[in-house]
Design goal:
65% of the residues lie in helices and 15% in strands. The protein is of the alpha+beta class. It has a domain of 79 residues: Lyase, Ornithine Decarboxylase, Chain A, domain 1 (Beta Barrel), CATH 2.40.37. Strands 1-2-5-4-3-6 form a six-stranded antiparallel β-barrel. The longest helix has 183 residues. 7% of the residues are buried.
Length: 283
């Protein structure tokens, strides 16, 4: 083989080895480069995603800002309308104030006239007040006399009624005594203890107010009626409860508006609140 050919073969072999090393280095560098490219591409994608998110948030913020701005513009227009209205009212108030100032001058003159009239009226009222006071005092004195007379008339009327009832009771007692006397004259017997005992008015109604016993053990009954109700000592009365007869008692101590009697006979226990009626009523 020619020496040049051998030289070229050696050169080719050396170049082949060098090319193989370069190929290996290129392959290694290409994989690293590809890895870096993929990494950078992923980072770029992430950055784009974040950018989209930021852009969406920016769009939302811009929308909210536009809404706030629109509301602010509306508030501004409303405030301007209020300012215009207040200015109009201010102008109207200034005009009204001017009118009031003009009219107050006329009012001052009228006030002076009214003051003079009031003073004159007060003077006349003072005179009338004195006259009215005198008339009222006379009227009050007359009314007092009239009231006193009315009370006196009522008192006399009550006394007259009591006298008439007493007279009627005495007449009844007298008739009863005559009957008993006639019975005696005819040979009959008369209960002397009942002779002359007064009778309670037929319309009388009372209420038991208390029940006690005295030192001797007698059952005492207090009622809410007295001489004003035409009751008297030794009167016989019944105590009833509904339609039931409770007891009978005889009055021993009679005042104007209350009385106390001794129970003679009882069917039930006497209680406060029981009704008191004349003994002549049947139960």
């Amino acid at each position: 083989m020619h020496i040049l050919t051998k030289f070229f073969v050696i050169i080719a072999a050396m170049l082949s080895v060098l090319l193989a090393g370069l190929s290996i280095a290129y392959t290694s560098n290409a994989d690293a480069l590809r890895q870096n490219i993929e990494t950078e591409r992923a980072k770029a994608q992430m950055a784009m995603t974040e950018a989209d998110t930021v852009n969406a948030a920016a769009v939302e913020i811009r929308r909210q800002l536009n809404t706030v701005l629109a509301a602010s513009e509306e508030d501004k227009r409303e405030l301007q309308r209020n300012v215009d209205q207040l200015n109009a009212e201010k102008t109207q108030l200034a005009s009204d104030l001017k009118k009031l100032e003009l009219s107050s001058q006329g009012h001052d003159a009228r006030i002076e006239e009214f003051t003079a009239l009031v003073a004159a009226f007060l003077e006349q009222d003072s005179l009338r007040s004195g006259e009215n006071k005198t008339l009222r005092e006379k009227e009050i004195a007359y009314l007092r006399k009239e009231i006193d007379l009315g009370e006196r008339i009522n008192e006399l009327g009550s006394q007259l009624e009591v006298s008439q009832e007493t007279n009627r009771t005495l007449q009844e007692q007298l008739a009863d005594m005559r009957d008993r006397l006639g019975t005696l004259q005819n040979g009959g017997r008369v209960d002397v203890g009942a002779l002359g005992a007064p009778r309670a008015p037929d319309h009388f109604r009372g209420v038991v107010t208390g029940v006690t016993r005295d030192a001797a053990g007698k059952l005492l009954v207090s009622i809410d009626a007295g001489t004003n109700d035409r009751l008297a000592e030794r009167m016989k009365l019944n105590i009833v409860r509904g339609s039931s007869w409770v007891a009978s008692f005889t009055l021993e101590n009679v005042n104007l508006n209350d009385a106390v009697g001794v129970v003679d006979l009882s069917n039930l226990d006497v209680q406060s609140g029981d009704e008191v009626v004349p003994a002549e009523l049947d139960y």
